Amino acid sequence: MDIKEIQELIKFVAKSGVSEVSIDRKDFKITIKATGSAPMVVNATVPAAAPVQQLAAAPAPVAAAPAAAPAAEASNLITVKSPMIGTFYRSSSPDKPSFVNVGDEIGTGKVVCIIEAMKLFNEIESEVSGKIVKILVDNASPVEYDQPLFLVEPM
Questions:
Q1: For position 143, which CATH number holds?
Q2: pLDDT for the residue numbered 51
Q3: Pair (46, 121) in one structural domain
Q4: Is the N or C terminus of the chain more exposed, i.e. has fewer CB atoms within 10 Å?
């Protein structure tokens, strides 16, 4: 089972309201327990060569996308969405400037934010060129897969 499958399983458990899910395969065992408002606990056991890990997942699903997202569909704005579940950061560290601000022009491949997922910091690059019109997520906030992050006016 790869990391993407584990993330999808965590997402499913969070949305379904199920309190516990266990999967036991020949060389892999995973148990996901949801405990009320606290973060989910994931226990994964892999073959003897790898250690047992305990991972903290994102808390319960975040509220639906802000009202500005439907406006993007009606106009010419492009929505940049989160490619994963994690914690959204606007800069590489608290003392560094933000990767992008409202009004900044971005190009394809420019880093626009970082999403931390399971202690890994993933730089998120823009897939579009344009001008940042709105930042839809607060710094250090949890984000869901496919959640809108930025509105971009294409160039």
A1: 2.40.50.100
A2: 46
A3: no
A4: C
Q: What is the pLDDT, as a whole number, of residue 136? A: 96
The structure's pTM equals 0.53
End-to-end alpha-carbon separation of the chain, Å?
41
User: Which DSSP symbol is given to 71?
Assistant: H
Give CA–CA dist 63/7, Å, rounded.
Answer: 18
> What domain range includes position 105?
68-154
Tell me the HSE value of 61 on the side-chain side, using a 13 A CA sphere. 15
In a domain, 63, yes or no: no
- State the average pLDDT over residues 8-28: 73
In a domain, 27, yes or no: yes
Edge-first strand listing for the sheet containing 111-117:
120-125, 111-117, 86-89, 141-143
pLDDT at residue 1 greater than cutoff 50:
yes
